Each structure stands twice: as C-alpha cells, then as structure tokens.
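User: Some background: our group keeps a shared notebook of sequences we're curious about, and every so often someone picks one and asks for a predicted structure to add to the entry. Today it's my turn. The entry only has the sequence so far, pasted here. Could you supply the structure so I can complete it?
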Amino acid sequence: MKTTEPIKERICPKCGSSYTGVPAASRDAKYDCICPDCGVKEALESIGVPQGEQEKIIETIHNYMGR
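Assistant: Of course. Here's the predicted structure to add to the notebook entry:
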C-alpha cells in the first residue's frame, strides 16, 4: 500500500551526511543506526577490503541506483 507520509531525512551520526534511505545497523557499539554508505563501508572493512576499493564499490552502487 502506498503511503502519503513525507520522506524523513536523517543525519548519519558516523559521517554527518544526510540521507533518506533505510538506515543500516552499525557494527560499532558507539552507533545505533547509520547511513547506508557507512553500513556498506563497515561490512567491507570487516572482511578486509581496502579503503580505496570500498570507495569504488560505493561509487558503483550509487551509479547503479541512479544517485
């Protein structure tokens, strides 16, 4: 069912960026919910993906999603 409630903009407590997507659960005990990008970065970091490669993966996701 389609909802008429406005899209809620949130601020990520980890990176400070605003986002409107579904929040991600943080693996870090300091944060509860974080932006989807930080969620992806935490997941990739946990399996040892280097920072530069993480950025490429995030960029690919954004390109695919049309952001």
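Suggested note for the entry: Residues 56 and 62 are 10 Å apart (CA to CA). The first strand starts at residue 10 and ends at 11.
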